[in-house]
Amino acid sequence: MHSYASLIFLLFFSFLTSFGAYAKDPNFLYHSCPNTTTYSRNSTYSTNLIALLSSLSSRNASYTTGFQNATEGKSPDRVTGLFLCRGDFSPEVCRSCVAFSVNQTLTMCPDARRAVLYYEECMLRYSDNNIMSTLSFGGGYILLNANNISSNLEDRFGDLVSSTMNQAAVEAASSPRKFNATKAKWTTLQSLYVLVQCTPNLRRQDCLSCLQYSINGMALNSMGGRLLYPSCSSRYELSPFYNETSVSTQPHQQALPPLLPPSASPVASPPRSGKGGNSNMLVVAIVVPIIVAVLLFIAGYCFLAKRAHKNSDTQQAFDGDDITTEESLQLDYRTIQAATNNYSENNKIGRGGFGEVYKGTLSNGSEVAVKRLSKSSGQGDTEFKNEVVVVAKLQHRNLVRLLGFSLEREERILVYEYVPNKSLDYFLFDPTKQAQLDWTRRYKIIGGIARGILYLHQDSRLTIIHRDLKASNILLDKDMNPKITDFGMARIFGLDQTQENTSRIVGTYGYMSPEYAMHGQFSMKSDVYSFGVLVLEIISGKKNNSFYGTNGTHDLLTYAWRLWSNGPVLDLVDPMIVENCQKSEVIRCIHIGLLCVQEDPVERPTMPAIFMMLTSNTVTLQVPRQPGFFVQSRLEQDPLDSDQSTTSKYVSGSVNDSSITDLYPR
Ligand SMILES: *[C@@H]1O[C@H](CO)[C@@H](O)[C@H](O)[C@H]1NC(C)=O
Ligand SMILES: *[C@@H]1O[C@H](CO)[C@@H](O)[C@H](O)[C@H]1NC(C)=O
Ligand SMILES: *[C@@H]1O[C@H](CO)[C@@H](O)[C@H](O)[C@H]1NC(C)=O
Ligand SMILES: *[C@@H]1O[C@H](CO)[C@@H](O)[C@H](O)[C@H]1NC(C)=O
Ligand SMILES: *[C@@H]1O[C@H](CO)[C@@H](O)[C@H](O)[C@H]1NC(C)=O
Ligand SMILES: *[C@@H]1O[C@H](CO)[C@@H](O)[C@H](O)[C@H]1NC(C)=O
Ligand SMILES: *[C@@H]1O[C@H](CO)[C@@H](O)[C@H](O)[C@H]1NC(C)=O
Ligand SMILES: *[C@@H]1O[C@H](CO)[C@@H](O)[C@H](O)[C@H]1NC(C)=O
């Protein structure tokens, strides 16, 4: 398709201008100048146009406001023009963008009576119509970030973008400059940045209509987007693309040296037909991943080639605001050493299957969790980096985010977002803290964990099997929302991924499904099993692998199954919460938990099904079969820390296989 080719060209052009030349050429975005209405060279119109361009760019004062309009000649050869600089740019940037666009337009749009040129920094427009009094949605142009928000967050994200932008639009329409730039919190680490602007000649209502029209025209499931119209433009991103300092301070008041009038003459310009078609055409730019890959490659290359070149934040729509690359993730070893006080004991906050975890504070004050991997990883550096990039791309509010890594000689470090509260087991299994988790909270935690696993299994681009879900791998943020950690560790550690059968078992007894513990067979259904154990633990407040029940039961699952079969089922519930719980919710959760821990993996529900069961009361639940479990003789160890246990035996139920006919037992 022709427009694709042009788009690729545009992308490369804007990309190279932002990365290649530090010479501060403005970043070209798009132009629209239909060749249907043209003027002839040496005509009065031509003379008027040149005079207009010169007059537009020669007014000193206009650069402080970022807007100027001008008119030359008399009808029918009258030409009206204007420029508008983006509200956050300094007068200097505005001035050079206008100079550049005035110079370029006669080359880009030779002979066209009407033209609009869009740059990141400014917009230049002229016409034989009186554009000052009309509102124009024509010749709009959409640019979308090629990354979409994951589908389960789309609605929430769309709501946030839409409400933030609409509020900014109202602010802008009422302000004299017809400009607003603002941000809103999206996640703990990410904010949404929006910028809206109209040409200041518009009336309040016209500005508002134009902006609302542009906001409605934008796909809100993308990680960033902008829509450019002659009368207004709007943009949102998940990274700060505008100058936050300048939007929060007063407009600049300094005077500037005069500008030379443009030197190009239309006669000298090589003819080049305008691109863009009729003025109502909406060019939708959706970039195919290949282009992004190529751009990323160039970005990486340029980044390496020009490390010192730090002003690369001028063009961001396509250079991957949030595209995770190895370069963007690699952190300096000394930074981490400093952040953790050289891994001081005081900073140690935990120990997992893969190494020790420290709390760190970076020089900018932000807190991180630093995991120092134990040295036994058999993986090469390249594979390690590749896997870190893959795992860092997994972003969900119920997953602890991997922020970066460091690699120095033998030392491998992973840096995570810091989650303030401790892990779930810290609260759940401590008689003095259990009460902090009432049923409502526990129910939310179950839902959050389910969302997180669902994302790992289904919504992320690849299927990630956690393989070590357990209460100590569920961290709680300050609002007690669960965040799963340690996912993707098998990948990062270079364990078998391709075969669904592994000799190296990553997991924790008590949470491992029988087929995984016995035969090393893992699948999404082994995570489902662990989830079931977690649910039963959350309900009962008891730990599966150190359970001493009444009537000789030695594990939580048998105990739960007995109560389910013979009642009273509510005896399973943590006495701390049983008084004030929603009985039907609790019983439904026990039911779901038991479905998850069934012996036959095929019988266990999938994560999407579990999610449905949790969120909708109308979904009918199957009758659970007896749990399958794996008993290890009272050894509480992470298998990675010790040799594979030889003292394990497989136990398949110790209760009668009585079939249950009531959906909910007494
Ligand atoms: C306008 O440009 C198109 C190509 O972009 C060309 O095919 C067409 O002939 C041009 N029309 C005029 C009137 O020059
Ligand atoms: C434009 O006018 C100049 C003199 O004013 C003349 O030399 C030139 O040939 C003219 N060009 C065209 C294309 O008519
Ligand atoms: C700009 O436009 C306004 C409104 O149309 C007009 O009053 C004013 O004279 C124009 N300014 C210039 C410099 O042409
Ligand atoms: C205008 O463009 C010409 C060549 O295209 C260049 O020599 C000149 O410096 C430019 N002027 C400005 C002000 O950028
Ligand atoms: C993003 O979503 C749009 C539909 O809104 C779809 O056409 C496009 O392929 C998606 N892009 C990616 C990279 O998933
Ligand atoms: C944008 O609007 C908000 C209020 O919603 C205001 O606080 C902020 O100062 C405005 N920003 C600019 C650049 O005008
Ligand atoms: C942002 O704006 C401030 C104040 O106008 C200016 O000092 C600073 O250089 C700008 N930063 C960038 C990156 O342009
Ligand atoms: C622009 O400013 C310079 C001094 O900075 C002054 O000499 C010149 O006359 C001004 N031009 C206009 C059109 O105001």
UniProtKB/TrEMBL annotation:
InterPro entries: GNK2 (IPR002902), GNK2_sf (IPR038408), Kinase-like_dom_sf (IPR011009), Prot_kinase_dom (IPR000719), Protein_kinase_ATP_BS (IPR017441), Ser-Thr/Tyr_kinase_cat_dom (IPR001245), Ser/Thr_kinase_AS (IPR008271). Its main location: membrane. Residues 642-666 have a biased composition (Polar residues). It catalyses: L-seryl-[protein] + ATP = O-phospho-L-seryl-[protein] + ADP + H(+); L-threonyl-[protein] + ATP = O-phospho-L-threonyl-[protein] + ADP + H(+). Pfam families: PK_Tyr_Ser-Thr, Stress-antifung. ATP binds at residue 371. It is found in: Membrane. It is a single-pass membrane protein. One of its GO terms (biological process) is response to oxidative stress. It comes from the Eukaryota. Residues 343-629 form the Protein kinase domain. Residues 27-131, 137-241 form the Gnk2-homologous domain. Keywords: ATP-binding, Glycoprotein, Kinase, Membrane, Nucleotide-binding, Phosphoprotein, Receptor, Repeat, Serine/threonine-protein kinase, Signal, Transferase, Transmembrane, Transmembrane helix. The chain crosses the membrane at residues 281-304. GO terms for molecular function: ATP binding; protein serine/threonine kinase activity. Residues 1-23 form the signal peptide. This is Cysteine-rich receptor-like protein kinase 10. It comes from Capsella rubella. The lineage of its organism: Eukaryota, Viridiplantae, Streptophyta, Embryophyta, Tracheophyta.
